[in-house]
Amino acid sequence: MAPRNVTFQTRTNSPAVLVLVAITCLPEILLTLLGTISPNASQWRMTAIAYGAFWNGLLQGWEPLYLFQREAMFASYAFLHGGLMHLLGNMVAVLALGGIVVARIGQKGFLLLYAISAFGGAAGFALLSGSETPMVGASGAVFGLIGAWKFWEWQARQHFGSPMRPLWSSLIGLVILNIVLWVLLSGLLAWEAHLGGFLAGVLFAAIVTPTLRYRV
């Protein structure tokens, strides 16, 4: 039998995906609006980053601004962004991948994967980066969704005997994309969070869906 092309089921307009995107958009929308009406616009954003960003220094003896900030920042950083374009890029990816994830593991599974990937992104940044620059953005969680998706693609290709070359090519493309963005952003890309989120997503998918649950 000839190898089968690999395609994925998807569910559009999943409430879990839409609500998560809306909640994630809210802080940046508020900060942007404040920037248009308040003379202290930069102060609002600096305060949000001080309280919600991921700070490596807090794991190295810095005094937290509030109780449990060291723990909270492993999640809160994913709800802050460096601007509307940063937010837009991440949320487009969540909307594009969310339907695939929900179709495979349901809405609760999607939310759990997203949360674990965000934590994995923060852990990757903490372990691999020595930067004292604050880290914000949902890209760690986004790369977790990508990691799960790519695991399922590998799983399906293995199951149906489809060639693996397209999978490896897409993974190489992700690496090249990160290198290009790192150069364009003068080294300010948190690739460590991308890697941590990706590995968390792959591990989650491997544990939760060790075999095919539907025909892809």
UniProtKB/TrEMBL annotation:
Cell location: Membrane
GO molecular function annotations of the record: peptidase activity
Transmembrane helix listed as a keyword: yes
Taxonomic classification: Bacteria, Pseudomonadati, Pseudomonadota, Alphaproteobacteria, Rhodobacterales
InterPro entries: Peptidase_S54_rhomboid_dom, Rhomboid-like_sf, Rhomboid_protease_S54
Keywords per UniProt: Hydrolase, Membrane, Protease, Transmembrane, Transmembrane helix
Family membership: Belongs to the peptidase S54 family.
One Pfam family it belongs to: Rhomboid
Bilayer topology term: Multi-pass membrane protein
Keyword check for DNA-binding: no
Annotated TM spans: 16-37, 44-62, 74-103, 110-128, 134-152, 164-185, 191-212
Main location: membrane
GO BP annotation list: proteolysis
Ranges of residues in domain Peptidase S54 rhomboid: 74-209
UniProt name for this protein: Rhomboid family intramembrane serine protease
